[in-house]
Amino acid sequence: MLIDLIGESQAMALVGCLGGILLGLAARLGRFCTLGAIEDGLYGGSWDRARMWGVALGGAICLTFLAVAFGWAEIDRSVYLATSVSILPAAMGGLMFGYGMAIAGNCGFGALARLGGGDLRSFVIVLVMGLSAMAVLSGPFAALRVSLFPEVAADHSASLATALALLTGLPDWAFGIGMGLIVLSVALADKGFRQNWTAIAWGFVVAFAVASAWVGTTWVGRVGFDPTPVVSHSFAAPLGSSMMWLMTASGTAITFGVGSVAGVLMGAFLGSLIKGHFRWEACEDPRELRRQIGGAALMGIGAVLAVGCTVGQGLAAFSALALSAPIVAVCIVAGAALGLRQLITGLRMA
Fold first, then answer.
1. What is the mean pLDDT of the segment spanning 56-78?
2. What is the pLDDT of residues 162-188, one digit of tens each?
3. What value does the mean pLDDT of the chain take?
4. 349 in any annotated domain
5. Overall number of domains in the chain
6. Is residue 350 part of a domain?
7. Which domain holds residue 187?
8. Transmembrane ranges (predicted)?
9. Which stretch of 71-75, 232-236, 299-303, 342-346 has the lowest confidence by average pLDDT?
10. pLDDT digits (tens, 9 = 90+) for 235-275
11. In a domain, 81, yes or no
């Protein structure tokens, strides 16, 4: 058995790495990007990338709850559903993350994808975002965060599907699959977009990467002996965890998040080679560098408060229909819209 050969930690990392490779390829070959989708829609007059994002979301919800129906995924064990929803930190964190993403020019996932293509400017974003996330999650500001926003275990699974199941007596997976199909139908409502098979295909690739992580980590937890978390992809704290693992690997077990980060870098590198887009780039404008550092710091803090980023809350938590996901997603979009407006209208940035 695979677990016996490589161990549980390595198996978790392998699950993360395989899904991360798919995400990295989707970013480089399919142009999957949350900030790009928002910017195209608000200022480019094109909603195709937003619709691709909708395909990814709807597909991830359908696949996740299909896995739940077959008993392949135990999403109730995820952090998104095991803790009660705190609206204030979710909203604050989402706004901070969205605004930081806009002024930095990328989210954590996007920065990894660009770094895989040789963009050293994104390396700054990855480093600063990872450090700021860890400082708030487990570093010197962790005690302040916990005192201001204590986590409370949920009495029931903090999922919309579970809430509807308790009200009606129907299985939660039925509501999940139904909601996923609704999201898909909205995303595919535009006739022109339905002809864009490339965007639709890459949207489903992202959906598969998100849902397969729930299945893979559930499987490792069942066949292994040590307790392992049921998780999917997110790119805030795992950036910091990856840096810590690189420094302390001899005494620290590798995790799903480390594998996921490595996978995105590998997939993005491969995708950039396929496209012939790999090239080294560096920041030449000090003002741009300041924006990237400031935006990355805001993203790291915001992602910890919101318990996720554009991928972590916007796709992974949403695929489980976590009650926190719509709050965080709306606030991320609002923060990004504010940051983009500030940049595009030429207002002076710090």
1. 97
2. 999 999 999 999 999 999 999 999 999
3. 94
4. no
5. 1
6. no
7. 2-344
8. 12-31, 52-73, 79-102, 123-143, 163-188, 200-225, 245-274, 295-315, 321-340
9. 342-346
10. 999 999 999 999 999 888 999 999 999 999 999 999 999 99
11. yes
Maximum alpha-carbon separation in the chain: 60
Residues belonging to the chain: 350
Q: Does the structure show a pLDDT above 60 at 199?
A: yes
Any domain includes 137: yes
What's the per-residue H, E or C state across the chain? Answer: CHHHHHCHHHHHHHHHHHHHHHHHHHHHHCCCCHHHHHHHHHHHCCCHHHHHHHHHHHHHHHHHHHHHHCCCCCHHHCHHHHECCCHHHHHHHHHHHHHHHHHHCCCHHHHHHHHHCCEHHHHHHHHHHHHHHHHHHCCCCHHHHHHHCCCCECCCCCEHHHHHHHHHCCCHHHHHHHHHHHHHHHHCCCHHHHCCHHHHHHHHHHHHHHHHHHHHHHHHHHHCCCCCCCCCCCCCHHHHHHHHHHHHCCCCCCCHHHHHHHHHHHHHHHHHHHHCCCCCECCCCHHHHHHHHHHHHHHHHHHHHHCCCCCHHHHHHHHCCECHHHHHHHHHHHHHHHHHHHHHCCCCCC
Q: Which structure tokens are listed for 101?
A: 């993403």
**Look-up: residue for tokens 């594998």?**
259
- Does residue 21 have a pLDDT over 70? yes
